[in-house]
Amino acid sequence: MAKYTGPVMKKCRALGINPADLGISRKSTKQVKYRRKKQSDYAMQLKEKQKVKFVYGVLEKQFKGYYEKASKMRGVTGENMLILLERRLDNVVYRLGLGKTRAMARQLVNHGHITVNGKRVDIPSYLVEAGDVIAVKENKKNLPIWQAAKEVKNLSIVKWLEWDNNELSGKVLSLPERADIVDVEIKEHLIIELYSK
Predict the structure, then answer these.
(1) Distance separating alpha carbons of residues 136 and 116, to the nearest angstrom
(2) Which of 44, 110, 152, 159 is 20 to 30 A from 143, alpha carbon to alpha carbon?
(3) Contact residues for 9 (Cβ-Cβ < 8 A; gap 6+)
(4) How far apart are CA 59 and CA 125, in angstroms?
(5) How many other CB atoms are found less than 10 A from the CB of residue 142?
(6) Start-to-end CA span in the chain (Å)
């Protein structure tokens, strides 16, 4: 399993992402001023691709696979690609509030804490479908992390997901739409332009 292990704050600053949007609390308030040069079209497209890869925790080979799959689907390729990324199990676990960050949600999935329709799934890139039930594994529900999650009320969950706090389970009501992805500003048309060269 490959993942980005470099300095997160430095990467956020370089890509223009607010760390709070990723669920990361900012520890330093140091402001760094950089000279901004006018960027070429290629630089803007590459930066946008790197931003989306970093936010979803996906490396190049897998990301290109999502692009190719999205290009074969009906509809707008950029929107289809973002919807595929949103449907990843680690992202759904994050959206349900089980993980504070996508990295934490990915680790929960890898360690076998999550079930989909009653079966343990430990593959973060598993694509959920409408009607799937995502829950904490039965024998893991008494761990302190889940007891703390039960005490949290009024979770702000996206409209395509439903959460039951008592059972520690959620349901995928429908597939996400492009309008549901608003936490990070993404210009997917730049990524498609980059890949279509």
Answers:
(1) 9
(2) 159
(3) 19, 24, 26, 27, 28
(4) 12
(5) 9
(6) 29
Q: Is the full-model pTM beyond 0.85? A: no
Please tell me the distance from the alpha carbon of residue 87 to that of residue 91, in angstroms, as a whole number. Answer: 7
Joined tokens for residue 10 = 């430095």
In the numeric block, the tokens 């973060």 are attached to: 124
Q: Contact 89/100 with Cβ under 8 angstroms?
A: no
Work out whether the CA dihedral 74, 54, 58, 114 comes out positive or negative.
negative
Tens-place pLDDT, residues 55-98: 999 999 999 999 999 999 999 999 999 999 999 999 999 998 88
Helix axes 60-72, 41-56, angle to 10 degrees: 100
